[in-house]
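User: Could you write out the 3D structure of this protein bound to flavin mononucleotide? I've included everything you need below.
Assistant: Certainly. Input first, then the structure.
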Amino acid sequence: MRSEKNLSAAPSAVAHADKVKSLIVFFSRKGQNYPKVNLTIGYTQVIAQYIRDRVDADVFEVVPQDPYPEDYDAVVRRNQREEDADARPAIVGPLPDVSEYQSIFIGYPTWNMQMPMVMRTFLDSANLNGKTIIPFNTNAGYGVGSSVEVIRRQWPNASVLQEFEVNGADAAQSRKAVNRWLEKIGY
Ligand SMILES: Cc1cc2nc3c(=O)[nH]c(=O)nc-3n(C[C@H](O)[C@H](O)[C@H](O)COP(=O)(O)O)c2cc1C
């Protein structure tokens, strides 16, 4: 929310401004990516930054305690194992206290037409009912898969806004598209 915080405002107004503060939670993987690129900043992180450039928000990067390998095929294999086990890989903490925020942007790449299991760990960790959830996603051209549906199912009393999704290869050129989307959903 692009609010101008008036520091001389009455305490109640300040409390309100704090309450509408947004949080951006994202997971993004650096390293070797399809087809043959080596990323120093993951594609989803690029989008997270564009959102942060426009929205006054705190940012929490989901970092798995056991880092994903840089090698693409090794990640694909590990992801498959985690999906098969319905795993919840541990996140380097402390996790954010979501009660401080009304709006939570949740960003992740599509992995095997779902969200990476480490994002499911985050979804399990926080009570998101009553929150406004704004998904954003990068993928290799196949879209968000079942990920947004998973969020809706898990937190039926959250208000899930229209997501942003883009092919990761186009992430760097997407600042305008991100801004258009943010404007459309009221940010
Ligand atoms: C394990 C794994 C599985 C993937 N599965 C899909 C998929 O099912 N559909 C798709 O469009 N892209 C898939 N991708 C490609 C990523 O979604 C895409 O490269 C994304 O932009 C990477 O974002 P990041 O750099 O933020 O991690 C997969 C990538 C990995 C590493």
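Strands lie at 22-26, 31-33, 37-39, 57-61, 103-109, 132-139, 159-160, 164-167.
User: Perfect, thank you.
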